[in-house]
Every structure is written in structure tokens, then in C-alpha cells.
């Protein structure tokens, strides 16, 4: 049991005969963790389990050493922005945040301060006294975010938090998540906007059909996908020359020269061998290399490789 | 990690407002927590559009007694006695308030405290607060009880005042210097106990059953069969104890009177604590069950 980790030990959850997640063992450290997977893969189940909204059928969960069936301890540490787009009827944004803060046992003054701060944080102070029912989808998403984080939780769990946000609000939200991650909080985000998740994630958990397909830092996960050739983009002055040298190597599967004649996209089964070869070519022919970067070392590519476009495990 | 209140402004990006300072609230401020639940619940339950039929149930007898008052004022005195009006009110209380108004009103108020949140997909907000689920049950029950008591005890009291108002000073004297005040107190007590008892039953139904109407219908049939049940079964009901606490006995009209099975009335010191104890058992059971309740909105 760790006081800094969220741990799942052989956790399964079934809804009657339907599988939610099966035999999941995980340790989630502080930082931003992305839960990635198609619909029905078990992302929300995992989040509901760690917040105590549902119980595991078997296995054990601890959140910073606290079992989730102790809400009186757990919920001071955890803020969960769930996917449900529902609010108590007749409440304004301010009432919504303030009212649930009162249930933490704080004074009126403290609740008021926290409410204002969190609404300001998500840019809703101007609309604070309007009914939530009159909010746009993006505003509702933001007020949920304010409510979930108003008690300043150590762990922030966000189920599809970018849904409905316009590009500016999305960018601000991502900056906020990033900041929380830097502060050492656990930020657990599920999202299908993979390229945005990719920008901020410290680690990723890929789920499919209730199973954890891969977990860890995205680069490590990509490295483990051995059967998929690595894609590498090389920006250099003579890509045709480099391509001709590469094709003499057995591990190069494909090399494609960019239409602008300045870059080469290649697929290799042995990235280390490629980097050695590239060094040799640079030394031998004086190739001027501007940049070398992995082209499929991101959440989206790993998702495609491991889960596939249709959401089936590859 | 940003420690408690030491560095609340970390280096946030320009468009991000820093998190508030981390402070730890005082230990177990349960009264504030229950106050927080009451605040939400009273606001949601009082004057909610969805509860219009409950107000109708509560205000129905007031409306009838107002009409009675106006009618009798026009007709003039001498057509019936205060004693007759007192028995009429006892009948109204026994057959309307206890068997219909308070019963169904409590069903609407208390079964929705949890089931309504499930239907509206808002229960998770409560479950994600650091509040013991037992306390949440207590807070919601208390809120429901306040609403039910204000509506139904208030309605019964107003109706009592109105039913004999056409007698003028004689009625005022009956109420304030005669047996009226005792009757008024007794009706208030019985109505409050009814709200406490039925409230605890329906709160439990709202936690356990997806459709609380089914158990409510069963309880209602059972309660209404009470006069015709054998003595032993008669005692397993809320209405039996409440009936015995009512200050004025209502004669059962023929032909039903031949089917009624008489049972020894429970004394006050058994009826009141017994009902309170039974309600407490239901509440404790609801609290324990709420601890294991999961959020399942049927998606």
C-alpha cells in the first residue's frame, strides 16, 4: 500500500454478465495520466472504481493508501469531474459549487472564497449567478470542472473533460491540467482527443474491452510495440541520397521522400541500427541533418497499433 | 507538491488562476455537513414544480374547510354542533390525512430523496463529498421531514381552525380554553409521527427499489386493511399506533363496522417510542445500505 500511488490489484468489475474491467493491476504515480481506449473499454469504470462510486467485483484498490469505500477520507483528496451532464434543478453556477462545498464542513466564508476562486479559474465568474440550465455545453463542462476541483484535491479525475469546449477553453483547460500535474497532483484524464492528451500526458493507460493493453510513459509503450516498425522523420538536405543508402539495409521497411525534397519518412524494424547508419552517412558524405524525430511515438499511433481504428485489440 | 497554504500561487500560466491555498478543515464538522445537505434539499424540495401534487394533497383539506366555513357563514348558525364538526375533522384527519395525504405526500417527498437523484443523475455529487453516507441519509431525511411536517402538520392545524370558525367566539373559546388545544396538539403529534414513520419507510424504499411505487402500493393496501385484520397483524402497522393517539374516535359506518376487529389500544408510552424506534431502525438500515449503494444511472 503506497501513500503516493493509486493502486489496483487484480481488480475486476462486472455489471451482471457484462464485463467492465478484468483483472486490472496498475500503479498510477503523480503527474498526468491519460486513460485512452474506445467506448466501452473500461475508462469510466476505472474512474468510478477509484472514486468509490462503484465497488470492484474482486480485487483491491487503494488511493494514496485509502480504500475507496471510505468517502469521508477519500473525497477530501479526490475531485472527480464525471461524464454526466446533469445538475441539481434551479441552481446557478455559484449555488452549484457553493452548495456542495458546504458538505465539506467548511464555513460560509471559506466556501464562498473557494467557490469564487474555482469559478474564476474556469472563467465563469461573469456567469456565476445565471442558472446552470441556461449555460452552453462548454459552460456546463467548465462549471463541473470548477465543482470537482473547488476543494483543491490532490487527485483530479476528469472523464472526457474537453468535451464541448471551444478551442480557447480547451487550451486553457489543458494548461490548467498541465499546471496541476507540475504541482505534483495526480491528474487522470480520459479523452478521445488523442493529440491533445498526448501533449500533456506523463503516462498513458491504454484500455480495450476491459483489459489494460499497455501502460507507462508513452515512449516506453511505443518501444514495447516491437511488431510495428518505428516511423522516423529525418529533415536533411539530400533525402534521396540517404534513402538510397538506407535501402541497402535489411531492417528498413519503407522510405518516402517528402514532396518538398527536404525530408524523408522511413519505417524501420531496428531504430538503433538506423541511428548508427545515419551517423555513418553523415560522416561519409557530409549530409546536413536538420532534425531527426520519431513520427509515431505518440498516443495516437500507439492507440492505432495496439487497439486499432475500430477499437479492436490488435 | 504544493503544501498546505505555503505556495498557493505557483507559476501558473498567464491564463490560469492559481488554485486556492490548501487548508484542512476542522475535524468532523458533521453539523455543518448536515446543514449543507439541508440547504440543498430544502431548496430543491420546497416550491419545486415537480412536487405540485404534494402541495395539492396538503392544501386540499384547507380548501375544503375554507369552503365549509364560507358556506356555513352564509347558511347561519344552528344546523350542527361544534361536537359534530369536531368528529368531522377527526374523520378528515383519520381517512384523509393519515391514509392518503400524509401517506402519499411522504411517498413523494421521501422516496425521491435518493431515487429522484438517481433519475436526475445527480446523486454522484453527494457521494463525492467527504460525508459519511449515514450522515447523508440523516441530512436528507431531516430535510424531507421538515418539508412534510410544515406541509401536513401546518395543513391539519389550519384545517382544524377553519372547520369551526363559523362558530365565531364559541369556537375560539373551545380551542383556547376548552379541549380544542389538547386536540390540536394531539393532531399535530400524530401528523408529525406519521411523517416520521412513513418518511423512514419511503426513504428506505427509495434506496432499495428502482420503482418505489410498488412497495408503496403494498404498504398502502396493508395500512388500509388494518381495521379488518386480526389483532396480531393489526399491530404491525403505523396506522394502528397513530389511530390510538388520535383525540377523537371516529365511528366506523355500517356495513364496515361489522367487519372491524377491535384490538386493545396501545398506551401512549408504547405507541410513541415504539413508532420512533421502528423509524430509527429503518433509518439505520437505510444508512448502512447507502454506504454500499453504487452509482448506476442505467447507462
Describe the structure.
The complex is a heterodimer of chains A (314) and B (299). Chain A has 314 residues and is of the alpha/beta class. Chain A has helices at 43-50, 71-77, 93-102, 108-121, 137-149, 167-182, 194-200, 218-224, 239-246, 271-285, 299-306, and strands spanning 6-15, 18-28, 31-36, 58-63, 78-81, 155-159, 186-190, 203-208, 211-216, 230-236, 252-257, 263-268, 289-294. In chain A, the strands form three sheets. Chain A has a six-stranded mixed beta sheet, sandwiched between helices. Chain B is mainly alpha-helical and 299 residues long. Chain B has helices spanning 30-45, 52-75, 82-110, 112-120, 123-127, 133-163, 169-177, 180-208, 213-224, 231-234, 238-245, 268-291. The two termini of chain B are 37 Å apart. In chain B, helix 2 packs antiparallel against helix 3 (82-110), helix 3 (82-110) packs antiparallel against helix 6 and helix 7 crosses helix 8 (180-208). The model of chain B is unreliable at 1-19 (pLDDT under 50). At the A-B interface, helix 2, strand 5, helix 3, helix 4 and helix 5 of A face helix 1 and helix 5 of B.
